[in-house]
# Entry
Amino acid sequence: METPHERWSRLRAAIGDEPLPCALVDLDAFEANARDLFAQAREAGKTLRIASKSIRTPELLRRLNALGGATARGLMTYHARETAFLAEQGFDDLLLAYPTVRMDDIATLLGLALANKTVSVVVDEPEHLDALEKHAAQVNVRAKVVIEVDVSLRPLPGVHLGSRRSPIRSVADALALADAIKARPHLDLHGVLIYEGQIAGSTDRNPFTPLMNPAKRAVKLLSRPHVERTRGELAAALAARGHRLALLNGGGTGSIAWTKKEPALTELTAGSGFLDSHLFDYYRDLSLRAAAFFALQVVRRPAPGIVTCHGGGLIASGEAGVDRLPVPALPAGCRLIGFEGAGEVQTPLVLPRGVTLSLGDPVFFRHAKAGELAEHFNEYLLVRGARVEARAPTYRGMGKAFLG
Ligand SMILES: Cc1ncc(COP(=O)(O)O)c(C=O)c1O
# Structure
């Protein structure tokens, strides 16, 4: 087993004289995570859809598809233009998990359908359907839609624990939308998406907010029966009405240990777990390996035991908090300084006792979120052992920025 010091030395050797900052993927860890996640899906008799937002690098998506074999089924995408870009890159079975009524987006999606790509888009209200139906009728193509159902926990009136995504909350709501889809001649009900954000997206072993952990675990436990029941009942109710679904999707990296056991789900989604950004260290049911890093160089030594790195302020989205900062991972034991955090152009670090770093040495950081790291770099260096095996351009490196 490689020690943290050995890993730091190996990654330092691998990046050699590469210009810093740089981002890298340690392929052995990435592949081990992929084997683990795909095996969980396969052993449960399900396929796994890769969430592109958590990768944002076509070459890595290609490698994941190859590693997943028959268990890898399609991509979950986040923008219509991104969906078209991935289709151009050779991917198929694309599920756009975020609705849109904009004409340009819909035209893009329908263009893919006309080109015989399997493409579907999430809907959750009649207005979504109207926009799709109108344009699909104009170009005379059928559009595949996927109903998203909200399974947040609402223990008391006015309390909503879960993501704010869809207004469809019950089996009856979903059946009504399914009927509305059936009534529109150019729409086909392709599947159902039921993402349980309060479980998959909620850390429950978070060292930055330890007092919240028991409450988050309780929310997860209390949520499960409702989530499971809704998925099961909805699958049965749609089947009873003669709807034959191509997919019933659920879960994310943070919930895979549990969602894989749900009989109603035909497929699971995972993205972040492949690169294993640091937020995924804080889940009780997960043991993945850090696979993505960014390297900053040490440029100053402002005091004994403190070094200052160049760059660093890659802060993650979501509920603002200390856990959204990057963590200095290698050498192990380095700490950000509370007063400065991860800075815009420089980041001071307190070194652990016994560790010294020279000017020019790299420090390897982990981003809190897997996909966002790719927005800061043009490429990932793909590291095998102590050398760069290949380079993988990110969306950004390919000139693509889908979310602005
Ligand atoms: C619908 C949906 N499913 C699954 C996921 C989980 O992806 P990840 O494995 O990257 O957490 C997300 C992420 O936000 C999502 O929006």
Observations:
- Residues 55 and 61 are 7 Å apart (CA to CA).
- The longest helix spans residues 213-240.
